[in-house]
Design a protein that fits this description.
This protein has 257 residues and is α/β, with parallel strands linked by helices. The protein has a single domain, classed as Rossmann fold. It is built from 12 helices and 10 strands. The chain has a 7-stranded mixed beta sheet, sandwiched between helices. The structure holds S-adenosylmethionine. S-adenosylmethionine (SAM) binds next to loops.
Length: 257
C-alpha cells in the first residue's frame, strides 16, 4: 500500500466503520481479520470478543508492524497473503473488510478465507461499489476526472469496481449458505465536524495512490495535484455530503447445519 495509507486506515473504528461486524460479535468468539491494515478495526474486535481469540493479518509488513505497535496487549498480528491463509478450521468468524476490492481473483481469496473457519463458521465481507458513489453537489471537473482515472486504473488491473454488488452471487457459487446482505453506506456531511476527515478520503487517495496512477500513465502529475487541491477546496466551500456505497455480505461456510 502507498505511504500515507495508514493515516486513512487509522481514522476507522469497529463502531464507526464496520457496524455489521460490531452487531454479530460476541465475547469468546475466535475471529480472523484478513487484510487488517494497521489494526484500527481489529483492536475493536479484540475488545468485544475478549477472552476469545483475535488474529489480524495483512500482506503489508509496515502496516502489520504498526498494528503490533498500537496493540501490544491484544490481537495477534501476522504477515500473510489472503490467497494462502495460514490457518485451517480454527475461527468462528473470518472478516474481510474493504480488502476483496483490491484483488483480481476475489473468489479464490474467499475460498482461502473460509478454509480458516470452523465448518459452518461465519464469513463476512464488507466492500464498495465505487461506481455508485454519490456526491452532493458534484465536485469540480478535475476531481471527477481523477475519480474516472482511478476507476479505469483499478479496472485495467483486474479489480472489480462494483464488487459489493457481486459478492452475494460469488458466495452462492462457492457453497456459502444463509447469505445475508445489509446496506452499510457511509454518508459524510460537511456540517458534521467529525465527518470532515471521512469526506477528505479522495484528497488522501490523490496524495497516496495518485502517485502510482501517475507513474502508470493514467493522469499527469499536474492533474493529480489539481484534483487534490480542488477536492480540499470543495470540502471547505461547497460540499454538502458524500455517500460511499458499501454492502456487508455474510454467510455460513460449508458445513452449516
Ligand atoms: C483498504 S485496506 C482495509 C483495511 C481494514 N480492513 C479496513 O477496513 O480499514 C486493504 C488492506 O488489504 C491488504 N491486502 C491487500 N491485498 C492483500 C493480500 N493479498 N493479502 C493480505 N492482505 C492484503 C492491504 O495491505 C490493506 O491493508
Amino acid at each position: 500500500m502507498p505511504s500515507g495509507t495508514a493515516e486513512i486506515l487509522n481514522r476507522r473504528t469497529l463502531a464507526s466503520s464496520h457496524r455489521r461486524l460490531d452487531e454479530v460479535l460476541r465475547p469468546g468468539m475466535r475471529v480472523l481479520d484478513v487484510g487488517c491494515g494497521t489494526g484500527a478495526i481489529t483492536g475493536g474486535i479484540f475488545e468485544v470478543t475478549d477472552p476469545g481469540l483475535t488474529v489480524g493479518f495483512d500482506i503489508d509488513v509496515n502496516l502489520v508492524r504498526q498494528a503490533h505497535e498500537s496493540h501490544t496487549h491484544g490481537p495477534c498480528y501476522v504477515v500473510a497473503d489472503l490467497y494462502r491463509v495460514p490457518f485451517t478450521r480454527i475461527f468462528d468468524l473470518a472478516n474481510a473488510a474493504r480488502v476483496l476490492q483490491w484483488l483480481s481473483d476475489p473468489g479464490r481469496a474467499i475460498e482461502s478465507c473460509i478454509s480458516a473457519t470452523k465448518p459452518g463458521g461465519l464469513f463476512l465481507a464488507l466492500d464498495y461499489n465505487h461506481e455508485k458513489i454519490a456526491w452532493d453537489p458534484r465536485p469540480p471537473l478535475s476531481v471527477r476526472l481523477f475519480y474516472d482515472a482511478f476507476l479505469a486504473w483499478r479496472s485495467d488491473a483486474g479489480m472489480d469496481n462494483a464488487i459489493a454488488d457481486h459478492l452475494a452471487s460469488e458466495f452462492g457459487r462457492l457453497g456459502i449458505a444463509d447469505i445475508r446482505v445489509t446496506e452499510q453506506h457511509e454518508r459524510s456531511d460537511s456540517l458534521h465536524a467529525n465527518d470532515k476527515s471521512r469526506l477528505a478520503i479522495w484528497s488522501s487517495v490523490a496524495a497516496t495512490r495518485g502517485h502510482q496512477m501517475v507513474r502508470d500513465g493514467y493522469l499527469s502529475e499536474l492533474q493529480r495535484e489539481k484534483a487534490e487541491e480542488d477536492y480540499l477546496e470543495w470540502i471547505d466551500t461547497t460540499a454538502v455530503s458524500q455517500t460511499l456505497y458499501l454492502l456487508s455480505v455474510e454467510g455460513c461456510a460449508p458445513g452449516c447445519s
